[in-house]
Design a protein that fits this description.
CATH architecture of the largest domain: Sandwich
CATH superfamily of the largest domain: Cupredoxins -  blue copper proteins
Radius of gyration: 26 Å
Shape: elongated
Strand content: 15-25%
Helix content: 25-40%
Structural class: alpha/beta
């Protein structure tokens, strides 16, 4: 039994190593049980969010350690067993007040500069090659590829509804509460514009691996941009309380190479 375990482990290691060498690897990003950190980033925006998080954590740990040390010192020095005659004479110190005003201001500036750069990059809208319109409903999503309206009869383009697949209908490998009957298909290494709105109540279109969370508001059109760097299947969910079945509005995006996307378009448009 021990030999079989070693053989299986070796085969698994060889398989993972071979996948790592392959250029056609597809990733599958979704939340995992007891997950603490971020999901693997698939866009430059999400990479920037993770880097900024790590940047802030450096200052948070330093400030937290210093405050706890200062609190501990105060508890020790001001205890009943300590002679506080000299301490009671301490009322204020100009040097200390200058330091504890300037140092936090410098820290905030160091944090603010990269945060401004990230915020502006998230709002930057380059010339998109693909436009995807997302419409939130109670309780499913509708998608429209309006760039191809002129290629279809009655200028209908490509549009479809996306519902969650029930537990009884899941195939092997599908994720419960995350798999849908109609996935969004988008090309990698392409600038994509996403227009988000709602038909009834507030929703929120959120995909963690993309670093995207856009509110879907009735009567309002919000937009964001995507630049997916790797092929794979990426999951998200509605992130705004929208009624009884709010937890059953998954989002499933399949990112493919440009050639595969062109083939998918041909099949959808029946060219």
């Amino acid at each position: 039994m021990n030999l079989n375990f070693k053989n299986n482990a070796f085969i698994s290691f060889v398989g993972i190593f071979a996948l790592g060498l392959s250029k056609s690897v597809s990733f599958m990003d979704a939340a995992e049980p007891w997950q603490i950190g971020f999901q693997s980033p698939a866009t430059p925006i999400m990479e920037g969010i993770i880097n900024f998080h790590n940047h802030i954590m450096f200052f948070m740990v330093g400030v937290g350690v210093f405050v706890m040390w200062l609190l501990g010192r105060c508890l020790v020095l001001y205890s009943k067993s300590t002679n506080t005659d000299e301490i009671d004479n301490f009322t204020h110190a100009t040097t200390v007040e200058i330091v504890w005003t300037i140092v936090p201001a410098i820290i905030l500036m160091i944090i603010a500069v990269p945060s401004f750069a990230l915020l502006y990059s998230m709002d930057e809208m380059l010339d998109p090659a693909v436009t995807l319109k997302v419409v939130g409903h109670q309780w499913y999503w509708s998608y429209e590829y309006s760039d191809y309206n002129h290629l279809t009869e009655e200028n209908s383009g490509i549009n479809f509804d996306s519902y969650m697949i029930a537990d009884d209908d899941l195939d092997q490998g599908h994720l419960r509460l995350l798999e849908v009957d109609n996935r969004i298909v988008l090309p990698v290494n392409t600038h994509i514009r996403v227009l988000v709105t709602a038909a009834d109540v507030l929703h929120s279109w959120a995909v963690p691996s993309f670093g995207v969370k856009v509110d879907a508001c009735p009567g309002r059109l919000n937009q964001t941009t995507l630049f997916i760097k790797k092929p794979g299947v990426f999951y998200g969910q509605c992130s705004e309380l929208c009624g009884t079945n709010h937890g059953f509005m998954p989002i499933c995006v399949e990112a493919v190479e440009l050639e595969e996307y062109a083939t998918w378009l041909e099949n959808k448009l029946e060219l």
